[in-house]
Specification:
The chain is α+β, with helices and mostly antiparallel strands. It contains 3 helices and 5 strands. Helix 1 packs across helix 2.
Length: 140
């Protein structure tokens, strides 16, 4: 049983997800119908040892890879070898979990400075003056 580190404090064991080899789709030459090089990774979010915040974010997100039962399914078939696809699937799982754990810094409302307000109004006045000079001249 190996431990996969997500962040410095969060990790999952490799028995929390299930990987099965399947045949890859698409063109592949002579081996396409004989070799199972693609990997199907299934990760049960609810049964995992992740903190509750991570689980909520993963289940709440509108990711098409998460089923109604709370199982995250990743299909890795980019590479020709099963081992590379296995590493790719695990890397993508780690990336998805890391994104779920990211908390954006809360925005603090600020007021514009007095000088920036004056600059804004001055530029608007200048633009208005430029546009007024473009008007048709009335000779009456």
């Amino acid at each position: 049983m190996a431990w996969i580190s997500i962040t410095s404090t969060v990790g999952i064991s490799d028995d929390e997800f299930e990987m099965t080899a399947i045949r890859a789709q698409g063109a592949g030459g002579q081996n396409v119908n004989k070799v199972s090089s693609a990997i199907h990774l299934r990760f049960d979010i609810r049964a995992s040892s992740l903190p509750e915040h991570y689980k909520e974010q993963l289940l709440k997100g509108s990711d098409k890879r998460v089923t109604n039962d709370g199982i995250l399914i990743i299909k890795a078939q980019s590479y020709r070898t099963q081992e590379q696809n296995r590493e790719d699937a695990i890397a993508r799982l780690i990336e998805i979990i890391q994104k779920a754990g990211f908390k954006p810094k809360p925005r603090r409302a600020t007021k514009p400075t007095r000088s920036s307000q004056i600059r804004r109004v001055d530029s608007k006045k200048k633009q208005g003056k430029t546009k007024s000079l473009r008007k048709r001249v009335d000779l009456d």
